[in-house]
């Protein structure tokens, strides 16, 4: 009896949603960083084995939006709860339950029409007594179908999670070819590697003001030639990304190319340019042009 279905992964920023999906797929599909709101679009990751095919929706962290981009991210995350077979709410086990967590719980009470699992991530950071107390606190907030302590980074209890998930999925055949791990275009995945390296090298100086636009993509059997623009909000950010005598943008290009080559299996030639578009995160024209179009997720 083969199972197949859709599973939405939701939660606040930086609780380990993307790390979990990468671990399940055993590949780096989704970029990660210590910076909150790293994931901006809903990324679809496809897991297949002999028993089931599970389509995971990795969503942006649900937060209080400060601009148009933040509103887009929240809308895409919350809309992912509709039409899925299971919802995974990920929370950091070592953090207190706050207003943001209670906001998500209230949305689940109103909108969830399928089983909801609570995954308490970073379980290895708590003692057995601390974990029991945390389980009791969460049990009082919502009637979760399952509560599973996990470590997305170390893989603790991930096999148990997958086996339990399969029981709640409907019977069905493969929705996608077995070898497929995402329905996103390769161009999107590779452009995200550029943004990840900017997050890594610039820390809190630039990240939320950056978008990546692929201007040119030429591909043959052995190589991919990519020309991409890094969009920033202010001229000072352009200087930071370029670095002294072009040193930082060179590092960004070199490190992004490594991940691009690993993912695509091809030689990658990458050219990067930096462009200033003031206040682009609040302008519908630029949000749509840069790939943050709410209509794509409604």
Fold and architecture overview:
By secondary structure, this protein is of the alpha/beta class. It folds into two domains: 166 residues, Rossmann fold (3-Layer(aba) Sandwich), CATH 3.40.50.300; 112 residues, GMP Synthetase, Chain A, domain 3. Helices cover 36% and strands 22% of the residues. The strands form two sheets. The protein has a six-stranded mixed sheet, sandwiched between helices. A three-stranded mixed sheet has the order 7-8-9. The longest helix is centred in the C-terminal third of the chain and has 18 residues. The radius of gyration is 20 Å and the shape is globular. The chain starts with a strand and ends in a 9-residue tail after the last helix.
Q: Percent range for helical residues?
A: 25-40%
What form results from the Cα inertia axes?
Answer: globular
Total strands: 9
Query: SS-based structural class?
Result: alpha/beta
Helix/strand order, N-terminal first = EHEEHEHEHEHHEEHHEH
CATH class of the largest domain: Alpha Beta
CATH superfamily of the largest domain: P-loop containing nucleotide triphosphate hydrolases
Briefly, what is this?
By secondary structure, this protein is an alpha/beta fold. It contains nine helices and nine strands. GTP binds at residues 11-18, 58-62, 121-124.
Short descriptors:
298 residues; alpha/beta; Rossmann fold; GMP Synthetase, Chain A, domain 3; 2 domains; 6-stranded mixed sheet; 3-stranded mixed sheet; 9 helices; 36% helix; globular
């Amino acid at each position: 009896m083969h199972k197949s279905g859709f599973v939405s992964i939701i939660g606040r920023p930086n609780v380990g949603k993307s790390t979990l999906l990468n671990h399940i797929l055993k590949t780096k599909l989704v970029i990660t960083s210590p910076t909150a709101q790293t994931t901006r679009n809903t990324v679809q990751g496809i897991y297949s084995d002999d028993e089931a095919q599970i389509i995971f929706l990795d969503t942006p962290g649900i937060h209080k939006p400060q601009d148009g981009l933040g509103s887009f991210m929240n809308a895409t995350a919350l809309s992912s709860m509709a039409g899925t077979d299971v919802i995974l709410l990920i929370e950091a086990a070592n953090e207190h339950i706050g207003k943001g967590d209670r906001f998500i719980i209230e949305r689940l009470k109103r909108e969830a029409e399928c089983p909801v699992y609570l995954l308490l991530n970073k379980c290895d950071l708590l003692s057995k007594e601390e974990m029991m107390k945390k389980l009791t606190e969460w049990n009082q907030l919502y009637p979760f179908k399952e509560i599973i302590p996990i470590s997305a980074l170390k893989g603790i209890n991930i096999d148990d999670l997958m086996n339990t998930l399969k029981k709640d999925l409907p019977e069905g055949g493969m929705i996608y070819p077995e070898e497929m791990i995402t329905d996103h275009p390769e161009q999107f995945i590779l452009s995200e590697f550029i943004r990840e390296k900017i997050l890594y090298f610039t820390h809190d100086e630039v990240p939320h003001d950056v978008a990546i636009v692929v201007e040119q993509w030429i591909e043959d059997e052995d190589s991919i030639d990519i020309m991409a623009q890094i969009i920033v909000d202010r001229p000072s950010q352009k200087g930071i990304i370029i670095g002294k005598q072009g040193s930082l943008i060179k590092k960004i290009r070199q490190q992004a190319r490594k991940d691009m080559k690993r993912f695509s299996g091809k030689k990658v030639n990458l050219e990067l340019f930096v462009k200033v578009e003031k206040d682009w995160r609040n302008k519908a024209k630029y949000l749509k042009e840069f790939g943050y179009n709410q209509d794509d997720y409604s």
